[in-house]
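Posted in: Protein Modeling Q&A

I'm a second-year student putting together a small comparison for a lab meeting, and my supervisor asked me to include a predicted structure for Insulin-degrading enzyme. I've never done this before, so apologies if this is the wrong subforum. The sequence is pasted below exactly as I got it from our records. If anyone can share the structure token output, I'd also love a short note on what stands out.
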Amino acid sequence: MAAAGNVEFIRARSDKREYRRLLLPNALECLLISDADTDKAAACMEVGVGSFSDPEGLEGLAHFLEHMLFYASEKYPGEQDYTKYISEHGGSSNAFTSSETTNFYFDVNADNFEEALDRFAQFFIKPLMSQDAVLREIKAVDSEHKKNLLSDGWRMHQLQKHLASKDHPYHKFSTGSWETLETKPKERGLDIRLELLKFYENYSANLMHLVVYVKESLDCIQSLVESLFSHVKNTDQRSFKCPSQPLSAEHLQLLVKAIPIIEGDYLKISWPVTPNIQFYKEGPCRYLSHLIGHEGEGSIFHIIKELGWAMDLVAGAGSDSNEYSFFSVGMRLTDAGHDHMEDIIGLVFKYIHLLKEDGIHEWIFDELASINETEFHYQDKVHPISYVTSTVSSMRLFPPEEWLVGESLPSKYAPNRINMILDELSPERVRILCESKKFEGSTNCAEPWYNTSYSIENVTPYMIKQWIQKAPTEKLYLPKPNIFVPKDLSLKEVPDKVLHFRQY
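Accepted answer (user: helix_wrangler)
Welcome! Here is the predicted structure, written out as tokens:
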């Protein structure tokens, strides 16, 4: 018997949709959303199996499985039946594989949702994964990889992973290619389809989260979800337990110089930090990214922009894992900025030192909390497909009452947590990546999967101390209070006005 939870969801004041938590007998957890005003329906399934679960020597198997599930099912054996149905009824569909999860999602005209959801459910009940589709989908995965070879985003991400602990899954190549899914398995005498079927056994209902967004009532959609998704097998698989930080001491205090495909100079300063997700109600990384990424007078960016050294600056930490995270400061440099790279790095550390010296301020936390509250409670209504894909990730990370808000509303002022992260942003723990074609002819290494040329130099705390000393002398200081940030968003009681019209 499915259990419909009576959850008091924390939700935006402007949100008129209805919500219900549903736990199916097979342990598949669902969030049902009813929106009477929508003309589109959408659904997203997140499976707690990603590329970190790839077997050794079968890099990209999780991504390959993602592709294969679109092919056909026992109930709908027609090739690409699901994709055709969605596109013929005003919809779209896609999927992505991340480190710890794989997400499948679609939207469709509201009147066609029931049949679309039935086809979607078969991904997780009885997909065919027939032999004739295997080679074709390996080619599709390889085609993606070849496209990524020309993407500096993919190239630099893989380079960062390559320069990590070899015994951590973060180090692995994750998207797959012809080499990893066809050539090498054949050399080892492996049948890739059998390996795929074996890997699919990890897809257990207890590792799944489903969000559905419909026009109909909650009772109506609950009945449909129960009838379809109760057939998903629960083999009681254990969720993937990621090791902690992927960077050990040998991977820190480094300056990595890499050659990109596209012209342009980029600088990224990173530190492994305690994951913000562990302290999402305190929001220490959010506090620090607000200050380090600030653009007003006295900020890092204001100074380097005035000097003509950078065109933008972004600071913050990722939040997709409970076990590891990186806080990064990234910027697009001008030619002059490239020549002053050491000065810019020194300035960043100078500002971090200022934050330590000046201490943590409750008024800054309160101001940021007010901004976050305004953004959350008066956010624009997003498209259903965007809403289901963003909400489903919260189901894995937060308790049910916080699924809709996630980490958007830090509410506990905890200076000790902020100082803890601040202490982690040290010269001893830093890793710096600089991308520029100006490094051509001076690199001596190549990353094996994307063949990105790079070189490595050690960066000691003493060197950073020297860079701090020769950094720009323009004064760094914290932002002043913003008088335009609202302090009270509660609705006030106003007596009704009665208008009297004179009749002629």
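A couple of things worth pointing out for your meeting: The radius of gyration is 26 Å. The chain has a mean pLDDT of 95.
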